[in-house]
């Protein structure tokens, strides 16, 4: 079932200018719990909510999903802006034309209980990066995978028993950024697309999720949870949005009430000047 707002809660969509740390409220709703903002090339913002996908204008304008099952908050926009790829609640990834038309299933059937959670598309639009979730006995295993956007054979990038998530391509297409618990609690890493040379990017007491490289490679935006947080829960206090610069500096841009849905997917503006996020104040 889709998440819903609690009594007295609202969804607030913001855009932050990273140079000035100015936060602009773009849209708010006390009816729809919307999540995970993306940008279209023309600057339009896209969010999901109630199992549906929406453009953000004066109101939420539904994007027709072309027969795709209800979706979750993992969706990315193709570089040319013509297609949105969505993770549906049936565990598969679909391609949906932005301007309407039938949806197309991209992912393969990898057996009962295997779920695909989409997070990235390569800069040339040919490859998707997703998290593959499967159960081995009673153990929940998540790894980074890729698949051609047109459909085809999956490639497993990481192969371990650690909790991996948030796989997203670097702007040059060479790396996949992700968060992992391989060194304890969740921190940020990157791995070469062919699966070698894993590099750790953060190492602190906070629980760090969902690295989003800026299109111009100037920084990585991410969600930071309080120490001791397990997973990436919804509706918690002191969720921080951080910026990791190329010289290793970590800048805190804001602290908010939120978490799940705040910034799950690529959320930078095309010109790298800002990114979008959602808060859920009570």
Residue runs with pLDDT of under 50 for 5 or more positions: none
CATH architecture: 6 Propeller
Structural class, from secondary structure content? mainly beta
**CATH class designation:** Mainly Beta
What is the tally of helical segments?
0
CATH superfamily: TolB, C-terminal domain
Overall 3D form: globular
Biggest β-sheet description: 4 strands, antiparallel
Strand content: over 45%
Number of strands: 23
Task: Give the fraction of residues assigned to helices.
Answer: under 10%
Q: Looking across the biggest beta sheet, what order are the strands in?
A: 3-4-5-6
Terminus-to-terminus distance: 21 Å
Rg to the nearest angstrom? 17 Å
- What is the helix/strand order? EEEEEEEEEEEEEEEEEEEEEEE
Overall structural domain count: 1
Whole-number mean pLDDT: 97
Query: What is the CATH T-level topology?
Result: Neuraminidase
